[in-house]
């Protein structure tokens, strides 16, 4: 039995318990209470640090385990070998679960579950489904090597045009173990398209993907940067809208009506924006337009109380909490940011056994030094994450 003491932020959005404790037995949370109400059995191991905060393990809803850019076209074997140390880093930085919006995760998920390597829990779309010439078509990638035959087995995506092909590729990727379907309803920053304002796929194609996903008991996630692409996704039943860059009031209303989630992924955009002068000139130009618009329009989302999740669009690594710091910096309430990275993350994953510190849930818990409600940026330094517990097992203890 473990007793983790500190300021308890349970992920449900209420005020923290300033002097609290979380009791863990086996793989589950047994109790969350005030420290003074606690009766500690003599054999319990106490975990405590100065000015410590106990929180649910963090959830990054938008990663690419197979890497970014050219890495998308390497073999799944090489991508896996490169990913393993990164998965350990992100786990040690406090992320106990990640969702992968396209990539190799479906193939290595079971090894994570068996404890073959140290990693967050993995939820993965496998290969995404994209239109020919669209954002995920390897032939269209600004940063991909050219000359790759259509539908070559990359770690990244499949092409489909028309309702029938969309259904076929969705069925294929789901049969390969995808936890959900990833599509793109707009162009993006890192593909060859000259604009970030293009719409991709049609209403009937998106509807077909949503129907196929629902038949498998799951949902569709769409890369949607352009305003038209966001609206296309929202009006056709897409459940998670990735990036949601060019928002306006009409788009916010549609998303709200659909009950969809947005995953803004500022982290990668910020990194690319800061190095825009060193990027391919077209990518640099597009990132400037997209990033500046996104920072301007995001307020519409949190003021309307849209359901917002935390996702970085990063390869997993030690700095994925950058997204949380960034959201707080844009004016989102710090407690809402923590909820986005915990409870909302679990909701998106359709898991009710993780995401909050409540009796009976799986013990995915972190103990950090300092108070993230006052300084979200402290989560970006892995040395501040003193304990990481995953399913009741301590995987990191400083
Ligand atoms: Zn992505």
Automatic annotation (TrEMBL):
Source domain of life: Bacteria
CDD domains attached to this UniProt entry: Met_dep_hydrolase_A (cd01299)
MF (Gene Ontology): hydrolase activity, acting on carbon-nitrogen (but not peptide) bonds
Residue ranges that the Swiss-Prot or TrEMBL entry lists as coiled coil: none
Start and end residues of each Amidohydrolase-related domain: 53-395
One matching Pfam family: Amidohydro_1
Listed InterPro entries: Amidohydro-rel, Metal-dep_hydrolase_composite, Metal_Hydrolase, Metallo-dep_Hydrolase, OTAase-like
Protein name according to UniProt: Amidohydrolase family protein
Organism: Anaerofilum hominis
